[in-house]
Amino acid sequence: MLVEAAELHPEGYALAVYDPPADGLPWLVVCLDPVGRLVAAVNSHIADAARARIADLKAELRLKPPTKDRPVH
Fold first, then answer.
1. What is the Cα–Cα distance from 11 to 33, expressed in whole angstroms?
2. What does each of the 73 residues of the chain score in pLDDT, given as a tens digit?
3. pTM above 0.70, yes or no
4. Which secondary-structure segment (H or E) carries 2?
5. Residue 73 contacts by C-beta under 8 Å, 6 or more apart in sequence?
6. Total domains present in the chain
7. Which of 3, 11, 43, 66 could cysteine-pair with 26, CB 3.0–4.6 Å?
8. CA distance 23 to 31
9. Cα–Cα dist 46/65, whole Å
């Protein structure tokens, strides 16, 4: 499973979009806390919708703007 996009935040949180691990499975958006524990996860069958969910998770978790926004390939 490859990381499609990632955002790192000053508080140490990371949000990432993972591509589907197999045909028929959805894209996965996760938020990890500073020690790597899963805080939230959502899925989408559409890549652009999965990427957009990063903004939704940031708002839901009230995270500050990222210090670094980078695609990961």
1. 9
2. 577 667 777 788 888 999 998 999 999 999 998 898 999 999 999 999 998 998 888 888 887 655 555 544 3
3. yes
4. none
5. 2
6. 1
7. 43
8. 23
9. 24
